[in-house]
Amino acid sequence: MTSEKKVVNLTEAAAFRIKEMQEHNEEQGSYLRVLVHGGGCSGLSYGMNFDQNLDEEKDYTDEQHGIKILVSREDAPIITGTKIDYKQSLMGGGFTIDNPNAIASCGCGTSFRTAKVTGTPEVCE
Questions:
Q1: pLDDT band with cut points at 50, 70 and 90 for residue 1
Q2: Residue 114: inside a domain, yes or no?
Q3: What element of type H or E holds 111?
Q4: Domain Core: where (predicted)?
Q5: Between 93 and 3, whose confidence is greater?
Q6: In a designed cystine with 118, which of 33, 75, 95, 113 is the match (CB 3.0 to 4.6 A)?
Q7: Domain range spanning residue 81?
C-alpha cells in the first residue's frame, strides 16, 4: 500500500549513493527498507537494507529519486518526517539521519529515542 504522506525523505545525494550500493551488491530493483530496532546508546537504532519482499498489509511504500522505499507500519510513526542524506567530506562519507521525532540521540548518529518510544539502551563502550 502506498503511503499518502512520505514517511522518510531521501535527498538526491542519498539516492545516488544508494543506487551505487545497489549496483555494487547486485541489488538493482530492490527496495530500500528503512527500519528501527531496539538497542544503541539511546534505546533505538536506525537500520537500512535491501529487500526484495513487499508485504502490502504491513509496509508503506514510496519511490523517490528512482529508489523504491519500504517502511513497516510499525516503524512508520517513529520515523515519519525523517530526512536521509549522504554527506561526503575529506574524512570519508556517510548517511545522516534527521528525525524530527527524536528527543535524544547518541553521538554516533544512529541511536535515538522518541517521547513515546524509548527502546532498551545498550551499554556504550
A1: very low
A2: no
A3: strand 111-114
A4: 8-109
A5: 93
A6: 113
A7: 9-98
CA 97 to chain centre: 7
CB contact at 8 A, 62 and 2: yes
CA 20 – CA 18 distance, rounded (Å): 5
Q: Is 113 helix (H, G, I), strand (E, B) or coil?
A: strand
User: pLDDT per residue over 63-83, tens digit each?
Assistant: 999 999 999 999 999 999 999
pLDDT of residue 3: 45
Nearest alpha carbon to residue 83 among 1, 19, 6, 18? 6
Determine the distance from the C-alpha atom of residue 88 to the mean position of all C-alpha atoms in its chain, rounded to a whole number.
Answer: 18
Residues 116, 11: Cα–Cα separation, whole Å: 27
- Domain count of the fold of the chain: 1
Q: CATH number of the domain that 52 lies in? A: 2.60.300.12
